[in-house]
Amino acid sequence: MKKPILLLVITLVCLIFISANQDKLYYKYNKAFEIFGATVRELSENYIVETDPEELFQNAIEGMLSDLDPYTKYYPEDDRDDIDMITDGHYVGFGITIRRIDSRVTVSGFSHDFKAFDGGLRVGDVIYSIDGVVTERMITDSLRHLTKGKPSSISKLMLLRGDEFQDTVELELTRQKVATNNVTWSGIIGDNIGLIKLENFSRAAASDFSKALNNIKDSISSSGKKINGLIIDLRDNPGGLLSEAVKIAEHFLPKNSLIVETKGRKSKNNASYISQKSPDLPQTQLCILINERSASASEILAAAFQDYDRALILGRQSFGKGLVQSVFGLPFNSRIKITSSKYYTPSGRSLQRIDYYNEGKIAKDTNIFYTSNGRQILEHIGVTPDSTVGKKIYTDYILDISKNNHFFNFATKYCYQKENIPLDFKVNDSIVEEFSDYLDEESYSFSSSALKDIENLYIQADEISQFDIASAYLDSLHSLFSNYQSNVFTENKQSIKELLSREITKRYHNEGVIAGQFLKSDTLVKITKNIITKRKLKQLLSVGQTKKKN
Q: Are 191 and 163 found together in one domain?
């Protein structure tokens, strides 16, 4: 009798403790609501000017969420298209991408159907106004309210175009339903090796991937051969729906394989995603390409393949987003996207790089995990490539030119008043010289990080009274890097040609078509193709290969 009585007492104590804690929590919420309501009432009655209740409440909600993580976000009714884009993979708009260049709202690209181009818009155009509202220097979030609308609705745009934007162009654009292009390009790149460039994980991504994969297999089998290998390019893929990544993984992982787990504060947010079908390509050589902009669902897919040693991961360290968001409906057609759980790879590791609940500190990679073959892998740093080939494709010089928008701005200037550019367009030496003159006109100068480090060493040597001893060595290093810097344009000429060719061509042709051309000559793709052709995957995924910590 003593045991049941003891259990009953313990249960009652636990219930009282839980009830007390809940009462305390409810009291805090009630207190907060009461103070908030009183504050709003005093503002509405006594503030110097009349306040807008909707604006006050939206600012209050956004302020409340700002102390959490950057992925928990409130969407009022006017921003519903943003949620539709995330969940359904479509939105209503002009079918353009915009960004601020030199503080101006500038057209930077088109959706894959190119209808805005057909309507007269050009990459590089500055949007001065929409329906009479001046937008030239608006932030992009404010601009959305003018670009969105009902399908088939029409707006009048005033554009600035040409050298120094001296031309004014007026045109009308019709809004349309624009679908996300999940698969930018797919095809065969030689040696019966397929490549699929997966751009997003929005709704239908798995279906789009399956169609692309079947087309590749059919094309190869029609010649009486089997697929020799597949490359999935996830570079610059920001992620999307976890369910789509799971479906894609099922093509390659054995049935009943754990693909990813989610764990949250509430048990309802805990889930295990298991492969439900037998793979159609269980043995095909598989390589995944990632970079620092591969995030979320991209990392789920890459990490699952890595944990099972099913694919070789190449490229650069991924972003490190291991948080899962859920979307909830709110009154008056508003919604909220809340971080509800973390995801964990089959080996049990978390890929989340930043600890948003500990003042945004970098999470420590103290825990070591192992792949199926026994290779060491670390958590809290995103996905580390299995091979460091292609670690740095472009030099600091090229990256600096790109960051300062010089490739973009030169292409705008070059394409001015050109009706068309052929798909096979290639920048020649003459155009490269024009680009060099353009950089001079813009007073562009580049100082390598190495030279800056050497200059700092001069200062430090002087501070410890060792300048005379160190200067001879530093002078030699300074001369070496100065010589490189004086020839830096010539040293990077090939990369300049490639990037300018793409920047100019994409203004007149579908990005997917252009991607196919450039992917075939892509440095990392060439390296990956060579690995598959020489059947090196098994060797590279063996226990002897250890992870390199960045």
A: no
Q: 469: pLDDT confidence band, cut at 50, 70 and 90?
A: confident
Task: Indicate the pTM of the whole model.
Answer: 0.81
- Distance (Å, whole) CA 308 – CA 377: 12
Same domain, 349 and 418: no
Residue 318 lies in a domain: yes
- Give me the amino acid identity at 216: I
Beta bridge partners of 185: 197
CA distances from 494 to 5, 228, 315, 397, 499 (A): 82, 31, 20, 13, 9
Q: Say whether pLDDT at 162 is over 80.
A: yes
Q: How many CB atoms lie within 10 A of CB 239?
A: 22
Q: What percent of the chain has pLDDT over 70?
A: 87
- Residue 66 resides in a domain: no
Residues 169, 27, single domain; the answer is no
Distance CA 151, CA 175 (A): 5
Task: Say if strands 133-134 and 285-290 run parallel, antiparallel, or are unpaired.
Answer: unpaired
Distance CA 273, CA 149 (A): 37
Closest CA to 537 of 308, 318, 347: 308
DSSP 267: G
By residue count, the chain amounts to 550
Q: Is there a contact between 299 and 319 (Cβ–Cβ < 8 Å)? A: yes
Angle at 16 between CA 13 and CA 19, to 5 degrees: 150
